[in-house]
Amino acid sequence: MKGGSTTEWGADSLFWCVVWYSLFVFDQVFIKAIVDKYPASGWERTLYQNFFAGVVSCMGLIYSPPTTIIAANGNLMGWLVVLASCVVGGTLSFGGMSLRGDVTATMFTVLGVGCKMFSILLNEVFVEATNNPSRLMVLGLAVLSSAMYQQAPKRIATKLANPQATV
Prior knowledge:
mainly alpha, 73% helix
């Protein structure tokens, strides 16, 4: 809040929630449509995705150069941390792009959210000094619910092409 009233904050928050949700749904549906339309391996999809993200990042650096050196500034350990971060990011990207071709967009989303909830649950159990039992119960329920989700069976192509045909 910028010192405004709760009403102003609520309308602004609602606007950004709608923007986020719209972009999230577009992202899930668009990427799934591309993955289904253009067959490629997980590596190819990962390279394309990271290439385009790299182009956008470079344009951002050209138009808004950092005022300080962000990376490691000559420190070997700092460069190793940056390199490890890139490897982990590439691995996650490969896993995500490989999985998108095998499951529905809904299943991919449920799996991603379930993993995030599980990591929050682990943080709450092992890192947080004070554990709120109701918070742990809700997180556990979210993880359990996502684990019980079942993907709908794939549609038969002939049925889609000719709805009057019997399968």
